[in-house]
Amino acid sequence: MADRIGLGMLTRLVHRDLVDEVLVDTGKTERRRRLLPARVVVYFVMAMNLFFDDAYEEVMRKLVAGLRFLRSWDQDRQVPSGAALCQARARLGAAPLAELYARVARPLAGAGTPGAWLRDLRVMDIDGVQLDVPDTAENEDEFGRGGEPGPRYPYPKVKVLGLGQCGPTP
């Protein structure tokens, strides 16, 4: 049930018409009917953020369960394999998700939201994490291995920095 709630919120916040509009604007609509239409792949990538500890197939199973619940996935269709999901993500690329983010991401707290403001300043939080990426020459050149001046890490590291709004949401 929690999975359906998470996916329900996702589809409520990012309506399918907006996803379709972004796919048209970025030139990522399908030329033929596929098991994994671009719209489903967009929701799959967003669902990967909700269920970040799960494997591709498990995230897709949760997405398919939510789509079946909404009657947007045929009962007889199978859950795609991890390889099919990787290929679908590669076909989609980053442009539709970047455009979707640009259209949707907005601060949630309004001017009168308690806890979200200190006088006239929005209260924000910043945090960071380092993630291992595949050990390739390109990744090492781009991201480095870190660990200086001591021993170097065995894999290149991506440093991710996030900025988030604090306080309750309206």
Overview of the molecule:
The protein is an alpha+beta fold and 170 residues long. It folds into two domains: 2-104, no CATH class; 117-165, no CATH class. 45% of the residues lie in helices and 13% in strands. The chain has seven helices and four strands; from the N terminus they run ααααααβββαβ. The chain has helices spanning 2-13, 16-25, 38-50, 56-69, 82-92, 95-104, 137-143, and strands spanning 117-118, 121-122, 124-132, 157-165. A hairpin with a 2-residue loop joins strand 1 (117-118) and strand 2. Helix 1 (2-13) crosses helix 4, helix 2 packs across helix 6 and helix 3 (38-50) packs across helix 5 (82-92). The longest helix has 14 residues, at 56-69. The protein is globular.
Strand content: 5-15%
| Number of helical elements | 7
The side-by-side strand order for the widest beta sheet comes to 1-2
The value of Rg in angstroms is: 19 Å
Helix-and-strand structural type: alpha+beta
Q: Extract low-pLDDT stretches.
A: none
Global outline: globular
What percent of the residues sit in helical stretches (DSSP H or I)?
A: 40-55%
Number of domains: 2
Chain-averaged pLDDT:
83
End-to-end Cα distance:
24 Å
Order of helices and strands: HHHHHHEEEHE
Largest sheet data: 2 strands, antiparallel
* SS elements, strand count: 4
